[in-house]
Design brief:
Layout (H helix, E strand, L loop, with lengths): L6 H6 L2 H12 L5 E3 L5 E3 L3 H12 L4 H9 L7 E6 L5 H13 L3 E7 L2 H10 L10 E5 L8 E5 L17 E5 L3 H4 L8 E4 L5 H8 L9 E7 L5 H10 L6 E6 L2 E7 L6
Parallel strand pairs: 3-4, 3-8, 4-5, 8-9
Antiparallel strand pairs: 1-2, 6-7, 9-11, 10-11
Helix pairs in contact: 4-5, 8-9
């Protein structure tokens, strides 16, 4: 559903007005949808539209989410760690499906882009059904701490901690994920879409965070890191064979689970 300005209008408009007008068109009310649970999701850019189709239209994460909901603990909320939260579509999809089943949950969303953190605050936090259930944490996933750099892309779903041509570089802190989840009995579902930094993440947390993860859905970027090594680390951490949910454009989304619940 790309919004393209009509040729005659595009020719008479000054360049400085073209992008603001496009942004205005993307924010029209008909690009908002109320989900069955009552939560609201908005599509406000072409990049949003791409991810919306992956998550909601194609149900890219549905098998992982539904498996986690099937195993949801009876004595506490489902604990979910969302690495690379972007504009929150994964969190909204999980929250919608959980609420329709009457399952309580807590989602911690990690996102390094300041602009996307502001979007998460605007899109998620005002929704009453998410109050107390969603925590937003600004920062990078990978190392345990220190300062890093985020390489931003014109398409927000391509922001990465790995160098890329074009775009701008901005400073961003690394977040210690083991400390962030230290009081969680386990991580029921880990979602990881960090644009090629997944090997660094898995190497860093192979000894403490990964053993506490029950189920993981990971986007592997074959052109940006050694994804065969990623799968070796996941197998060594006790996960069963990966199930490929999607494979396209040099990426694979894989679902992995432990044969037995994590301690």
């Amino acid at each position: 559903m790309p919004l393209v300005l009509p040729g005659p209008l595009r020719r008479v408009l000054p360049d400085r007005l073209v992008q603001p007008l496009r942004r205005l068109l993307w924010r029209l009310p008909n690009l908002r949808r109320r989900l069955p649970s009552g939560l609201e999701v908005a599509v406000e850019s072409p990049a949003d539209w791409t991810i919306y189709n992956d998550v909601f239209a194609d149900g890219e994460y549905d098998e992982a989410i539904c498996a986690a909901l099937d195993d949801a603990p009876a004595d506490r909320p489902l604990a979910v760690l969302d690495l690379g939260a972007n504009v929150g579509y994964f969190a909204l999809r999980l929250a919608d499906l959980a609420q329709r089943r009457g399952i309580d949950f807590r989602i911690t969303c990690l996102e390094p882009s300041r602009a996307l953190v502001r979007e998460l605050e605007r899109r998620l936090l005002p929704q009453a059904a998410l109050a107390g259930r969603v925590r937003l944490v600004p920062g990078l996933a990978g190392r345990r701490g220190g300062a890093g750099r985020l390489f931003e892309s014109p398409h927000h779903f391509e922001h990465s901690a790995l160098p890329r041509d074009g775009g701008r570089q901005v400073a961003a802190p690394y977040v210690d994920l083991a400390a962030l989840t230290a009081d969680w009995p386990r991580v029921d579902l880990l979602k990881c879409d960090i644009e090629g930094a997944e090997l660094e993440l898995l190497e860093t947390y192979a000894g403490d965070l990964l053993p506490r993860v029950r189920r993981a859905v990971v986007e592997l970027h074959h052109r940006r890191c050694d994804t065969a090594r990623c799968l070796e680390l996941l197998a060594a951490a006790g996960f069963g064979p990966p199930r490929v949910l999607r494979e396209a454009y040099g990426c694979s989304v894989v679902l992995l689970a432990r044969p037995e619940p994590a301690a």
